[in-house]
Design a protein that fits this description.
Elements (H helix, E strand, L loop, with lengths): L1 H70 E16 L5 E17 L4 E10 L10 E12 L4 E9 L21 H5 L6 E12 L2 E8 L30 E8 L5 E10 L14 E12 L2 E12 L2 H6 L3 E12 L4 E11 L10 E13 L2 E12 L3 E11 L1
Antiparallel strand pairs: 1-2, 1-16, 2-3, 3-4, 4-5, 5-6, 6-7, 7-8, 8-9, 9-10, 10-11, 11-12, 12-13, 13-14, 14-15, 15-16
């Protein structure tokens, strides 16, 4: 009996031991599986973290790109001209086709109050030695709003004078060519380098003031004391004498714009030693009035130049004016007439005055695309007539 109990106990112990061993092996295997799963999970967590970081980085890049695209703007304008003008004094014809201007604008907003603007122009299609064209930087300035009333800018910018000097895209004015008074007397397009301040004193009333580089007129030759030829275009410009400009503009009445500009430069020759100091004052005023589809523009400009040499040449006073009524029948079609008188020629007699009349049409294929045609008659010191055709765009 005792032997049986011993045998049974031994058998039971063996079975229990084998089950315990089996259970231990099973637990170890389970632990290994759990550890492996934990490693897999940790690896997945690392991969998910890396993926989230890449997604966040991509989102940041996309957002930055979107902001950059919205902050930086590109634009421009251009105009192609055909001129067919006969010089009645010589009988010679001017028949030319010219892509007069190709301009690109690039602007960027650094913030709501600080921005950059630039304008790069190619004139007459091609430039270089012996070529008729030029590449010109007409604007490149930083502008900053100090508050709602006060805005300043520094760099290279268009002068606050006249009607077309600051706004001269081909869709914004009548006629193929820009008017000769603002071209020769003001002289548009005219830019300088320096600093400017704009003050919005009241709704519709603004003041501008600038301190900039100035003109440098020749003192000898056919272009002596010629204002347009005195533009230095901020190309290593002689800055011995700066220019000071002030403008007041009133636009409080709907359809009406009144503006007047004065500029003073102590020496228009920039210190040429062989002549009298030629201080110069520019005065100009204009009015634009629109009622329904009818618009009339009028401008007067005058230079007063001191110095014996300028007086002897008859260029101590250079002035001009024009009036331009226009009627726009609809969004596509408009007609105009413009009469100009100006005198910037050398000589002290009355025959230096030039008159010019233009009559023509504008056809806007789109608000930013225009076709133009006008008849031109020049009299006085010059005698010519003919017609001009043009196409212009802006974007």
């Amino acid at each position: 009996m005792m032997m049986k109990k011993t045998i049974i106990a031994s058998a039971l112990f063996g079975i229990l031991a084998s089950q315990t061993a089996f259970a231990s092996d099973e637990t170890q295997e389970l632990r290994k599986v759990i550890e492996q799963q934990q490693k897999v999970l940790k690896d997945l967590e690392k991969r998910l973290d890396a993926t989230e970081k890449r997604v966040e980085k991509t989102a940041d890049v996309v957002e930055a790109t979107a902001e950059s695209k919205s902050a930086t703007t590109l634009g421009g304008y251009g105009e192609l001209h055909y001129n067919n003008i006969t010089n009645n004094a010589t009988g010679k014809d001017k028949q030319t086709v010219d892509f007069h201007r190709f301009v690109l604008f690039v602007g960027h907003e650094f913030s709501e109050s600080t921005r950059f603007f630039s304008e790069l122009e190619v004139e007459h299609s091609i430039s270089g030695d012996g070529k008729k064209g030029e590449v010109e930087l007409e604007q490149a300035y930083i502008e900053h709003d100090f508050n709602e009333m006060l805005t300043g800018k520094a760099g290279l910018f268009l002068m606050p004078v006249g009607i077309i000097n600051e706004t001269h895209e081909p869709t914004s004015f009548y006629g193929v060519e820009r008017n000769p008074v603002e071209k020769n007397i003001i002289p548009a397009t005219w830019w300088e380098a320096g600093a400017a301040l704009n003050v919005k004193a009241a709704p519709g009333l603004a003041f501008d003031g600038t301190i900039t580089s100035g003109l440098e007129v020749a003192t000898e030759g056919s272009k002596a004391y010629n204002i347009r030829s005195g533009r230095q275009k901020v190309s290593k410009a002689n800055a011995s004498d700066l220019a000071y400009t002030a403008r007041v503009k009133y636009t409080a009445v709907p359809g009406l714009e009144l503006a007047a500009t004065a500029q003073y430069q102590a020496d228009l020759t920039q210190g040429a030693g062989s002549v009298d100091t030629a201080s110069a004052t520019l005065l100009t005023a204009h009015v634009i009035y629109s009622i329904q589809n009818f618009t009339v523009k009028a401008l007067y400009a005058q230079w007063d130049i001191d110095g014996n040499e300028a007086e002897m040449l008859g260029r101590d006073e250079q002035n001009g004016w024009y009036i331009e009524p226009g009627y726009r029948f609809n969004e596509s079609f408009g007609i105009f007439a413009r009469y100009n008188e100006y005198d910037n020629e050398a000589g002290n007699s009355n025959d230096t005055e030039i008159t010019q009349t233009n009559v023509g049409v504008n056809y806007w294929l789109h608000e930013n695309v225009v076709f133009k045609a006008d008849y031109e008659k020049v009299g006085g010191a010059k005698d010519s007539d003919g017609f001009n055709l043009g196409v212009g765009y802006q974007f």
